[in-house]
């Protein structure tokens, strides 16, 4: 069987969803670590330095292309699965099994994914576009100019509707990850009875901690909260 046929099959499509999902999970870890600086007192400089590194390093910029490709592929494949599943349920039972056979969030991955996609579009327009194509203030550290993305965040997160949108996006992300994390490992065949309970537990914690970090960012900036520390340490 040719590779094209493999990835066009139902199993192949699930593998693509799993691989792109795991890639995006890795991105979330890095993104959360960088953004967590805004929660700390004097974390502004570390955050701006890290954002500059992420935006100027050639390896990161190339990975960025892969990130966008991964997001698009993950979204398209997800919608294709939803359409396919709806077609298979055309002759569904009169009585729905509901939570007896699955959780509501596992049945609502397309809806949760759509909410996350809308959140991402707004996020990219507010932060990624200005940081890549101009429109940000500049700040100086050790005689070098950096984009002041921190100031941009403070301005954006002064708007209540933006905070509401981010909280909704983080809520959707948490539920999406709760099912998607373990599902990705399971699809890849990493579901050994000895280790899969650990993966499920890690996935549950991951689906809470990472979205919580993102949700705290707008709240901390809007209410002026700070954790007494100089921020997280970076090697660049």
- In this structure, how is the largest beta sheet organized? 2 strands, antiparallel
| SSE order, one letter for each helix or strand | HHHHHHEEHHH
Distance between the termini: 47 Å
Overall number of domains: 1
- CATH architecture classification name: Up-down Bundle
* Widest sheet: strand ordering: 1-2
CATH structural class: Mainly Alpha
Kindly state the mean pLDDT as a whole number? 83
**Strand residues, percent:** under 5%
Low-confidence stretches: none
Secondary structure tally, helices = 9
What structural class should be given to the helix and strand makeup? Answer: mainly alpha
CATH superfamily grouping: Fumarate reductase/succinate dehydrogenase, transmembrane subunit
Q: Give the helix proportion (percent range).
A: over 70%
CATH topology: 3 helical TM bundles of succinate and fumarate reductases
Strand runs, count: 2
Report on the structure:
This protein has a single domain (10-85, 107-223), classed as Up-down Bundle (3 helical TM bundles of succinate and fumarate reductases), CATH 1.20.1300.10. It has helices at 3-8, 10-35, 44-56, 58-88, 104-107, 109-133, 149-156, 160-187, 196-223, and strands spanning 138-141, 144-147. The mean pLDDT is 83. The chain has 9 helices and 2 strands.
